[in-house]
């Protein structure tokens, strides 16, 4: 099982410091939601964790190894990222797009075999894409494309799964099924970190939340511990609280905007 750590990570974009000394652990077996207001640095932090953006200071490690020094294929085996970038330019089918996830951990001339085809079919089925497998990726809705991006990352079979807003184009049924799939994968030992705007989803479906505010990680831990009235007010500007129901399920009640 593989743990990803961001150690005292700072990042700069356009000459501005976007992240400032972030320490975050992405633990195997848990689904961790990275939450925070617009512009707080969530996507930037995620990008440093899969080396799409170099850190200005600090280090990201997987099982103790600095990802800056990993070879491309070793990094792809350790860390997979589903981003908000378009899944491909088109002209390829959903199945072919998901197959691309198998190639990133291979050499250029290492052909895919029957095992790879079986993995692709299993993942297409798990993400509910079997019926769309022969469609051109450009002929899909936003939500369908989002699932292709997730499926392609899963096809990579990484130990740490990073997802940038994996549910933002999905209808409620698909949102819940993606979150259920992530929980299932985490139960199998994967470390999962996803950015999420929907705090209710984070509270109800994630094991842990990490709160970013103005480029700093202000709290991390179980949702009911982290999202207290003060954090909801000061970071998110709302009045609210996390409640535990009699069945043990957590819910987030938001009463309205915080004063001022
Ligand atoms: N290329 C860039 N150059 C300069 N600043 C940038 C660049 N990209 C992003 N930023 C700034 O970095 C900050 C953090 O952006 P980021 O996308 O990480 O935030 P976020 O928390 O993911 O936001 P959102 O919830 O709106 O998606 C924002 O203030 C944004 O304007």
From TrEMBL:
Gene3D superfamilies, alphabetized: P-loop containing nucleotide triphosphate hydrolases
Taxonomic superkingdom: Bacteria
GO molecular function: ATP binding; ATP hydrolysis activity
UniProt KW keywords: ATP-binding, Nucleotide-binding, Transport
This protein's record includes keyword Glycoprotein: no
Domain annotation ABC transporter: ranges: 4-239
InterPro entries membership: AAA+_ATPase, ABC_transporter-like_ATP-bd, ABC_transporter-like_CS, P-loop_NTPase
Protein name as catalogued: Histidinol phosphatase
């Amino acid at each position: 099982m593989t743990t990803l750590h961001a150690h005292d990570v700072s990042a700069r974009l356009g000459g501005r410091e976007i992240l400032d000394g972030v320490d975050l652990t992405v633990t195997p077996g848990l689904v961790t939601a990275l939450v925070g207001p617009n512009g707080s640095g969530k996507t930037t932090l995620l990008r440093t964790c899969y080396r799409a953006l170099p850190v200005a200071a600090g280090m990201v490690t997987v099982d103790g190894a600095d990802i800056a020094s990993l070879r491309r294929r070793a990094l792809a085996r350790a860390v997979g990222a589903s981003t908000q970038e378009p899944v491909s330019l088109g002209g390829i089918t959903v199945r072919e797009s998901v197959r691309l996830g198998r190639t990133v951990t291979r050499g250029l001339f290492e052909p895919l075999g029957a095992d790879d085809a079986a993995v692709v079919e299993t993942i297409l089925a798990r993400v509910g894409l079997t019926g769309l497998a022969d469609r051109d990726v450009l002929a899909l809705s936003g939500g369908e494309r989002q699932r292709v991006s997730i499926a392609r990352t899963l096809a990579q079979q990484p130990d740490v799964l990073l997802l940038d807003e994996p549910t933002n184009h999905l209808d409620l049924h698909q949102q819940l099924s993606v979150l259920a799939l992530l929980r299932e994968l985490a139960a199998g030992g994967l470390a999962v970190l996803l950015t999420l705007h929907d705090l209710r989803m984070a509270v109800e479906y994630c094991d842990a939340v990490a709160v970013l505010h103005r480029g700093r990680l202000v709290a991390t831990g179980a949702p009911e511990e982290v999202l207290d009235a003060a954090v909801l007010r000061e970071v998110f500007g709302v009045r609210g609280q996390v409640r535990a129901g009699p069945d043990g399920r957590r819910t987030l009640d938001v009463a309205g905007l915080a004063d001022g």
